[in-house]
Amino acid sequence: MLNSLQDLYHIIPLLIVSGGILVSIIVEMYSKDSEKILFALSILVFGAAGLFSLYSVNNVSILFNGMLATGGNVNVFSFIFNIGAFIVTLLSADYIRKYGTYYGEYYIILQSSVLGMMLMAGAKDLFIIFIGLELMSISFYVLAGLNRKRYNANEASLKYFLLGAFATGFIVYGIGLIYGTAQTTSIDILTVRFPQLTGNLLFLAGVLLFLVGFTFKIAAFPFHMWVPDVYQGSPTVVAGLFSTGGKAAAFSAILVTLAALFNGNVGSLFTPYLIFVSALSMIYGSIVAISQDDIKRMLAYSSISHAGYLAIGLAAGNSEGTAGIIFYLAAYSFMNLGAFGIVALIEGENETNLSIASYAGLAKRNPALAALLSIFMFSLSGIPPFAGFFGKYYVFFAAIKSGLTWLALIGILSSVISVYFYLRIVVLMYFKDQGEEVIPSKSAMGMVGVVLSAILVVLLGVFPGSIINLISSFL
Amino acid sequence: MTIPIEYYLALSAFMFLVGVTGVLIRRNAIVVFMSIELMLNSANLTLVAFSSYLGNSVGQIFVFFVMTVAAAEAAVGLAIIIALFRNKLTLNIDEINILKW
After folding, report:
1. Which CATH number does the domain housing residue B17 bear?
2. Do A158 and B100 touch (CB under 8 A)?
3. Which of A200, A241, A463, A468 has the greatest CB tally within 10 Å of its CB?
4. Would residue B100 count as lying in a domain?
5. What is the ipTM of this complex?
C-alpha cells in the first residue's frame, strides 16, 4: 500500500489536472459567476501542474505495474502541455466573449484535453496511449465546435470528428494486431520481444496501421486534408492548442512506441515511410502556404510543414533525433501559440480581420504587437537567434548524423521557401500603409499570454544548449 | 471443434475494409460514422479472437475500453451532427464545404 502512496506523489501533475476537472464541473453546476472562477481555476491548475512537472523533472520512475512513466522527458512534455494550455487560457479570457457566447464547458474540456495529452506522454502501455489519445481527441472535437450556433465551427468540428475517428479506427486495429502477435500491450515487454517479431508480417502491418493513424494526428502530409479547414473554422485560440498541444502529444506517443522499434533495430523498416511523410509534408506545407490569404489557413499549412521537420527526427531514428524533436516541440509550441494569440487579438467580432491584408501597417498603430508577431514569424521561419532556428538545427543535425543528408537538404530548402510567406507578414506590418482600419482588441490577459510565449521563445533561443543537455540526459 | 483463429482474423480484416471503404465512398455523415464504428468493431473482434486464442485476458479488457470510448465518441459525434443539421439542413458531406482554399 505504501508503494501506491509513493506512486501518488509522482503523479501529482496528473492529480492536479484531474482534480481541476472535477472541481470545475462542480463549480460550473452551482456558481452563477462560473466564468471568472473557472478561468482563475484553470490558470491555477495549469500553472501548478506545469511548474510541478518542471520541479520534479529528475524523479524518474515507472508506476502502476509498468503502466505509466513519470519524470524525465515525460515531465518536459507535461511542462510543454501545461504551460501551453496556461497561455491558451490567458488568451481565451477575452477572446471567447468576442467570438460568441461563453459556454460553461469550455475550461472543463480544455483541462480534460490536457489530461489526455499528459497520459499520452507518460504512457508505458498501449492501453494508456489509447485512453490518453481519445481523451484528448474527443475533447478537441468538442472544442472545435464549441460555438454550436456558428456554421463554420460546426463544419470544422464535423470534419475533425469524422477524420479523427477514422484515424482512431486505424490505431485500434493496429493495436489489436500488435497485441495478437506480440502477446502483450506493454511497451517494455514489446521492446524485449521485438527482435523475434521483425519477420512477422501481421505484426508489421499492425505497427504500420498504428503509425498511419498517428500520421493523421500529427497532421502530416498524406493525411493532412482536415488541418486547414479545422483550424480556420475553430476558435482561434483553440486552433492554437490543436496545432501545438495536439501535435506535441501525438509526437510524444510516437516517440514512446518507436523507442521500442528503434531498440529492436526495426526502425529501418519504417524509415522509408517516415522519410516519405516528412519530405512531402515539408515541401507541400511550405508551397501551399504561399498562396493562402487567410492567416489561419497559412498557419495551418505552416503547421503541416513543421510536422514534416519534426518527422525528420523520427526518420533519423537516433537519440539526437529524439532530443531534437522534444526541443523542437517546445520551441514550436510556444512560437505557434504566440502567433495564434496575436491572430486572436487582431481578430474582430464575427471572425473578421483574418486576412493577411489586415496586418498592413500594424507597426504604426500598435508597435508592440507588430514587434511580438515579428519575433514569432522569425522564429517560425527558423532565423537565429530565436528558438525555431535551434529546433531545426538539432533535427537536421540528427538527420545528417544518420546519413540522411539529402532529407536535411530538403528541410533547408523548404525552410527557405517558408521564409517568403512568414516574412511577407513582417513586410506588410512595417512597410505597407494601412488599408483598412483594424483595431486590435484590448485584452490585458491576452497580452500577458503573448508576452509569456515570446519570453519562452527567446529563452529557448538563448539557452538551447543547456535545455538540449537536460533532454538528452534522460534518453 | 474450435474455429481456427485465421477465420476470425479474415472476418475482422474484411469488416475493417468494409468500414474503410464506407468512410471513403459514402456521402452521408451518419453512414460515414457508422462505417467508423464498423472499423472499431472489427478491431474489437481481432482483440477478442486473439485474447481467446492466446488465453490472455488483456485483449478482452481492452475491448471494454474501446467500447467505452466508442460510446463517448458516438455521443459527441451525434451531437456535432445534430448541431450541423440545425444550421444547414443537410448531412451530405459534399455540401458541407464552405471552408475551402
Report:
1. 1.10.287.3510
2. no
3. A241
4. no
5. 0.94
